[in-house]
Each structure stands twice: as structure tokens, then as C-alpha cells.
Amino acid sequence: MTTRRRDLALMVPGEAEYLCLVRDLVTTVARKAGFPDCRIGEIEIAVDEACANIIEHAYGRRPPGEPHVGKPQAIAVRLALFPDRIEVRIRDRGRCFPPEMASSLDIAEFAASGRRRGIGSYIIRSFVDEVHHSYRPGRGNELTLVKYLAKGVPGG
Amino acid sequence: MNLAVNVERADKVTIVDLVGELDAYTSLEVRETVVRLIEEGARDIIINLEKVDFIDSVGLGTLVGCLKRTAEHGGTISLVCANPQIQKVFDITGLSKIFAIYPTRDEAIRRVAPATPSSE
User: Fold this and answer.
1) What's the confidence (pLDDT) of residue A125?
2) Which domains are assigned to chain B?
């Protein structure tokens, strides 16, 4: 049973140019935890998609390079590292935005329309072992992504 | 983090070499580059992802947008992908069925712009 854990936290403005900072933290921590490269890439893209969803949907999209009107809203990323898994808790203060539950993608529709709706959530669900979402009015969304060190473990 | 975009115009094909990460922040430059190339008359475009080490759904959406736009002008978009992690994203989303994806830049050029045998 796993009891020992280490936590790391990062808070970034809810802007696309900071996505790389979040990815760097996640990959560095996962690598130090002993995750194989293929699974590091999977948790990296899942966290990126979750943060990109916040920027686009929970906070509303702002074109790259265009300054914020008012104070930029933040994304808080907390990583809890257990011997058998990593848990990434991503919080925002935007409107309710639960990840979509689609178990498949209509890729022909995507190719025809170019609209990406649902693809980010589909990638998240494809690349992590567990996804949990909660929303509290006035507090925002909290999305927890769980990735186990190896395949074949609970939820994996 | 950034993305370098380099364009090489060959005889029958235009190659867009990307180096870096293709995400919500960097994708705009790729879209603008491809739109400009189409306006300048490019039709068959190869986007080389050999040196791209990350792509997300915004990057995928940008490539799909490029595919649509070139098709509207009678052109094609082909990809070069050698990174298994990126190939996995194309496979998971089903986009590997939509795009022509080649393992090397040279092969993509050979397939997209095959040498025309001299008839004279």
C-alpha cells in the first residue's frame, strides 16, 4: 500500500504561453518518479489539454499576444507523487467546464468542420487512468488526473 | 518553449519544417504560414514534424484546418512524423486515417512530388 507522498505546486496565468511551463513541471516530476518515457508523454498531453480547456472554455479564449483586460486569471496545478502513481490536480476559477464523456470521436466530422470540440477531453480520457471533475460555484473547477506508474493497475 | 517554422520551396512541393512544440500558443504561426503559402500559389505542402516533440489538440486542429484550406484550392497536405509519441496522438484521434503520413522527409518528397520521367 502506498502512503508516502510528495507534493509540488505551480500557479500560472491562464494563458497559452504558459502551457509549456506546466508541461515542463509534469514531465520533470514524472521522470524523477521513474515513469517510462511513453507514459510521461501521455500524462504531459493530458495535463496540457486540461489547461488548454480552461483557457479556452472556462476562462474564454484570448488570442496569443493580446493583452488581458484586467487581471489575468490563474491556473493552479498541484502534483501529488505516490510510489505507484501521480495525481495532478488542476484548479481554475472559471465557469463550470466538465470534460466531455465521449468514448469515441467523429473524426470525419472533425476533418470536415475543423472544429476541435471534444478532442481535448477525448485525449485526456485516452491517456490517463482516472479523471475526476468537481465544480463549486464561486470556487471554480477542479480536475484530477491520475496516472499509474505501470499499466494494469487499478483504473489502468 | 517555442516553435521554429522554416519554409523550403522545391520544384513541385513546398516543405514546412517545424522544430519545437505545436500547441495552443505556437499553432497560429503554422496556420498563418500555410495560409500565406496557399495565397502565393503553393498547392502540395509537406509539413515536417520530425523535430516536433509535442503536439496537442490545438496543433491537430491547426493541421486539419491547413488540410481543409489546401483541399479547397486543389492541393494536399502531407505530414512527416518520426516521433512515436506524436504518431500515437494521430492514431488515438483517428487522424492517421485522414492525413498521408510518411516516416521521413525524403520519402514524403518522393511520394508527393515524384520525379517526372523526361519525355524529351
Assistant:
1) 92
2) 3-103 (3.30.750.24)
Which ipTM was obtained for this model? 0.86
Task: From residue A136, give the alpha-carbon distance in Å to each of A71, B44, B50.
Answer: 21, 50, 43
Question: What sign has the CA pseudo-torsion A105, B44, B55, A16?
Answer: negative
Q: Are B25 and A107 a contacting pair at CB < 8 A?
A: no
- pTM here is 0.87
Q: How far apart are CA B14 and CA A117, in angstroms?
A: 30
- Read off the amino acid at residue B84: P
Can you say whether the dihedral through the CA atoms of A125, B84, B16, A66 is positive or negative? positive
Rounded to whole angstroms, the Cα distance separating B17 from A82 reads 40
| Chain A residue whose CA is closest to B58 | A116
Does the CB of B73 have a partner CB in chain A at under 8 Å?
Answer: no
| Cell output for A99 | 470534460
Report which of B17, B9, B95 is spatially closest to residue B44, judged by C-alpha positions: B9
pLDDT of residue A156: 44
The pLDDT tens digits of the residues spanning B69-111 come to: 999 999 999 999 999 999 999 999 999 999 999 999 999 999 9
Which residues of B fall within a CB distance of 8 Å from A55?
24
- Superfamily covering domain A6-64+72-148: Histidine kinase-like ATPase, C-terminal domain (3.30.565.10)
Please say if the pLDDT value at position B113 is more than 60.
Answer: yes
- Sites in chain A below the pLDDT cut of 50: 1, 155-156
A109 shares contact with chain B (CB less than 8 Å): no
Q: CA-CA distance, A58 to A74, in Å (whole number)? A: 11
CB pairs under 8 A between A and B: 86
Question: CA–CA separation, A67 vs B76, rounded Å?
Answer: 35
Dist CA A10 CA B98 (whole Å): 37
